[in-house]
Amino acid sequence: MSPKAGHSHRRRRVYVDGQLQGRLVAALVLLEAGLLVLACLYLYHAFGEIIDESLYVIHAVDRRPLLPRLAAALGWTVLVCALVNTAALVIADVIWSSHVRKVLAALRARLASVRALDLRPQPAERKPAHRLLTLTERWIASERQRLVAAREAATGLISAPESGADTRESLESALRALRRGRRADRN
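and the corresponding structure tokens:
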């Protein structure tokens, strides 16, 4: 078994936009680490106060039980952490959805221009930088080259003389031009 065949069953992480996703993941990891540190510090002080208050009244008759007070402090900590995490995920979702909408809007606009047979290069001023848009522009450039080759071949056929030998030669020349356009499409 080859080394690659043994690893083909493993999951791979595919990032749609590695730069933005990397920033979001880094921000969420830093938020979690900070939240964990703050939660531990709060629990340390809260538990310390609860235990100190209960320590000196251990034999008193009307003292409050220790466990419910500790559980309440822990419950508040978990609730605050959950709310902060939920807010962070909502913010990350808004950022990510906005980015995806921008990329898809740029792609739809470019495909609409292609549908209208406008294969001219578009300025990259307001388009987000994304691999999908780069690949789309490369595809459109290759289609533009194919159409230029087809136009040259058609022009060569129209201007071809009527005699048999010259017609064959002009047809072969047009075929070569079309094949050059296809090769440019594959690059």
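(Above: one complete record from the training split.) The radius of gyration is 33 Å.
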